[in-house]
Amino acid sequence: MRSRMAGLRWSGACVLGAAGLAGLVAAVLAPSVGGGLSAPSVAAASGVGGASPTAPAGTLGPSGPTGPATLPRPSATSGALRAHLGYEMHLSGRQSGAYVYDLTSNQVLFSERASTPHPPASVEKLYTATTALARMGPQARLVTAVYGSGQLEPGGVWHGNLYLHGGGDPTFGSQQFIRSHYAGVGASVQSLAAHLHAAGLRRVTGRIEGDESYLDTRRGEPSSAYGFDPYLEGVLSGLAFNRGEAGTHSGPHAPAEQAAQQLASALRVDHVAVHGPAGAAVTPPGSVVLAEAPSPTVAQLLGLMLPPSDNFFAEMLVKDLGVRFGGAGTTSAGSTVVRQTMASLVGIHPHVVDGSGLSREDRTSPEEVVKLLGFLDPSPLGPYMREALAVAGRSGTLADRMLNSPATGRCRAKTGTLTGVSNLAGFCESASGDLIAFAFFNDGIGTEAAHTIQDNMGITIARY
Question: SS3 of 449, please?
Answer without folding.
Answer: helix
